[in-house]
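## Example pair
The file below holds two records. Each record gives the amino-acid sequence first, followed by its structure token line.
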Amino acid sequence: MNPGDDDLGAPLPVTVLPVLRRVDAYPVEVEGEEYIALRDPEGVVEDVMLLSPAAFLIASMLDGTATVTDMRATYARAFDGRMVEEHEIRKVIAELDLRGFLDTPGFRLKRAEARRRWGDLPVRPASHAGGAYPDDPRELAAYLGGFFTAEGGPGLLAGATPRRAPRGLVAPHIDFQRGGLAYAHAHRTHREEPLPDLVIVLGVVHSAPPVPFIVTDKAFQTPLGVVSADREAVAAISAGCGGWAREEEIAHRSEHSIEFQLVWLQATHPGQDFTIVPVLCSAFEQFCGEHSPQSDERIARGLESLAGVLRGRRALVIASVDFSHVGPKFGDDIRLDESVAAGVEESDRALLAPLCAGDAEGFWAEGAGDGNPRHVDALSAAYTLLHLLGPDARGTELAYGQAPDPEGGIVSFAAVEFP
């Protein structure tokens, strides 16, 4: 969309300048033209919206303080003195509102309806089947199995001495095409023995809602079957947190990090029943900054509630995370080359060291101490895993990798086992 496009909705009243919601914004090129893509990390708005650089500048100024006069002045400075008319600004605002990217009554109605529909679902559907991975069960099992035997894979361990499943795993949540080998290294660790009855999967909620943890007691559907949630454990966690751990439950609807681990668990243990505690971890930095997450009362309560459901039970705890995200896609004004990739690995190695040492506070300090400029999304979930495993936990790195982001960036990931 450009500021001068045809009117696509009735302009809002002159006195109203609504606020742009928290969105993901990244550059894309379509038929040789540069655009900024807007995506709703909450998933309430399912479609991506493309804005011209000029329209995106207008959108980015919708912070609740800028006036139309401010916008016109900023626009003129950015575009060599060219003035934008008020009606052009209003057209951009109207289209953003129509598409659901503004915090307005219309969007809040959409969100309420989405939450009602989510609440009515008895089972969480597989939201990424048929896109990120095959939706045919046999095709999916063969697809995942191929990563074990591919070059760089861990092998099938046929005839190997069975061993006890690990207590903890760090596994990627990048798509399987780019991270499949690292997934295979992580999930090879438990394929020779039955899974424990309980698996806690710590995922990442990329929209960073204003609560540290989000749980759900819904079962998860995948092409390989249905995995039930441990409803008693989820209820105990929610009660221990005072109820807020269920407030943003709809975030589970479209987040992929838990779903991806379940597909691998089912593929490596066909026919076995196990239950899960699905936990999405928000960005702890918004609550505690660079300080220890335990300095925040809600995070501390959540950690203690999670630890409570583990007492006396044999369980597997999985942190479904990626590491660095750098490049234009993630807001970095840098040119990607080998030196950037080498710097990313060096930084990741510095973070993996306290992780494998079982040092939760050292891990947090290393990752969050400089403001997390590499956009590592592993911090909250991996910190939680270390807390749950205890100070005696020691990890072994099984795989490390980097992959290009098609929209301009590098994403890194790793597999770590905690016996």
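Second record, same layout:
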Amino acid sequence: MMNKIMQKLTGRQIILFVSGLVSLLIGIFLMVAGSLKIQTLQEQHMAARWSDENDVSQISCFFSRSAGVSEDSLLSFGYQLHGALEEASIVSTSENENARLWADAFSASGKVTVESNRAKLEFNAVGIGGDFFLFHPLMLKSGSYFSGNDLMQDYIILDEDAAWQLFGSNDIVGQLVYIRDIPHLVAGVVERQEGRLSDAAGLDTSVVYVSYETLSNYGIDYGINTYEIVMPNPVEGYAKTYVMEHIGVSENEVEIVENTTRFAWASLFKELMQFGTRSMSSKAIIYPYWENMARGYEDILMLMLVIAVLLFLYPAVLLVIAIRYWWKHRTWTVGSLWHKFTDKLERLREKHWAKSKARKEKREIRKAEKGLKEKQPKEKKIKERKLKEKKPKKPKQEPEKEPENIELKGEEENNEK
């Protein structure tokens, strides 16, 4: 059939058909490539790791330096959230009794001076609190993460470059470094992302991760600038609305992002409609490197979306032209199509009726054969019984009398004489 269609097309029509098909395939490839690229941003998929039932949402809050966010204010927000979830009868459905309904983390940017037995250097630092590495599963080269909730807060995680500068090796887990003469244990070494986008986002220099207590007490603390939470989202938009209303910071001092849906194509299309004003902001907020990277990917994906739409539009226009051409040069009418349809329907009915009749006849034949098989043994038994009745009965034979002993009888007669 395809060969017949291609034979009827002119050279120009074939070129248009092939170009439209190629355009469609490229558009699909861009959409798939964009979706796969999003999966590499682990910081944006905490909700999927927390629950596979799509009933939670990940929310990120980015504060200005003048917002005045503290550990106590975030702790108070957590207490309010716990009470609100209980009041709304939102409980955990996990079989694990210790399962949590939500998890959160906060972080602050700053600098610390780290000293080893080999060098003393100043690094950009991230002071973490809560379950930071649950939201940011950095690629470990060695060692392990630590939690901002640990009793001991004297751990540090270095990236590869910092490890080489301080020790000349990546295998340094368990080694001691000093921050303002306070010993800190190296918990792990992580891989630092490289590339043009990563460098522009703020990863062009080494980064170390310490507890917020260490950063605020022994380093240069720029203040808590990020709060992240994954929480139940029983109704679309519930989580983001709750955070906006209860975080306790003025709208001019905070930017709230719903990470769970930010890279959906519908969300990207909405952002695209704000083109030109999206980059304008009066908020004095400095985003951490992972949010800068996410915003960079948003711009890239929006561009891919525009290109994909144009690529899809081209074959769509060709299809409309083809349909119009086909309609204009059609060799049929609505009436002829109706008659053809009714004729085909009638033939289908006749065919169905014939099949039904054939099935009925087969059932009757099988029924007759079955009755005949059941009847034959009965008739045979009746005939056998009749034949037995017609056979003449044999007369009973009387037992033969034994001949009298003539000699004894003669002797008896002679004696009597």
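Notes on the second record: Residues 199 and 205 are 8 Å apart (CA to CA). DSSP finds 13 helices and ten strands in the chain.
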